[in-house]
Design a protein that fits this description.
The chain is α/β, with parallel strands linked by helices and about 180 residues long. It folds into two domains: about 5-100, Trna Endonuclease, Chain: A, domain 1 (3-Layer(aba) Sandwich); about 110-179, Eukaryotic RPB6 RNA polymerase subunit, CATH 3.90.940. The protein is about 25% helix and about 35% strand. The chain is globular.
């Protein structure tokens, strides 16, 4: 992870790292930083708002315009301020993900009490269903607002594989359904 100065840049660096995104371009303009990202054939735009206390619908629409202009699949808005009701309610409709200011700025997966995690692919999810004779919603749940879910980019309906180290069991795997 590269050297990041502000909390917003630290959060963005974590998301870029754990979602396996590649930074194609970076633009800085005043209190805004725009990252143009890609993963495979999908393109994303991340807008960082530095030092802005209230983040309203205008910023969400600005990011939506960038998404349309660059034909990106999704936008991510990272800020350290409070999101207004309008911004929160309109963001999903405009293909914008709001990253909460409460997301830790440090790498939570390096903490001794946090296990490594990854999103299970569709093929592996079908194998799990056959192996355990259970539907994904019958697995233990993890909320979409959990920091692990946010950093990995999990959406409701995804399954997260958690690999925990144990003195007695060695390496154990568990699965959680994102709600």
């Amino acid at each position: 992870m590269s050297k990041a100065n502000t909390d917003e840049e630290k959060r963005a660096a974590l998301i870029i790292k754990y979602r396996n995104l590649k930074k194609d371009k970076e633009e800085r303009e005043g209190d805004k930083i725009t990252y143009y990202l890609s993963r495979g054939d999908k393109r994303y735009i991340m807008l960082l708002l530095i030092g802005i206390k209230t983040i309203g619908i205008a910023y969400v629409r600005e990011l939506k315009d960038l998404i349309d202009e660059h034909e990106a699949d999704k936008g991510l808005l990272v800020g350290n301020g409070k999101y207004t009701y309008s911004a929160k309610s309109q963001a999903p409709k405009l293909r914008v993900e709001l990253i909460p200011p409460t997301l830790p700025t440090f790498d939570i997966f390096r903490h001794s009490l946090v296990s490594t995690a990854e999103i299970v692919g569709e093929e592996d999810k079908q194998k799990l269903i056959k192996t355990y004779h259970a539907q994904p919603f019958q697995f233990p749940w993890i909320k979409v607002a959990d920091p692990v879910s946010i950093i990995l980019g999990a959406e409701p309906g995804d399954v997260i594989k958690i690999m925990a180290k144990s003195r007695t069991a060695g390496l154990s795997e568990s699965y959680k359904y994102v709600v």
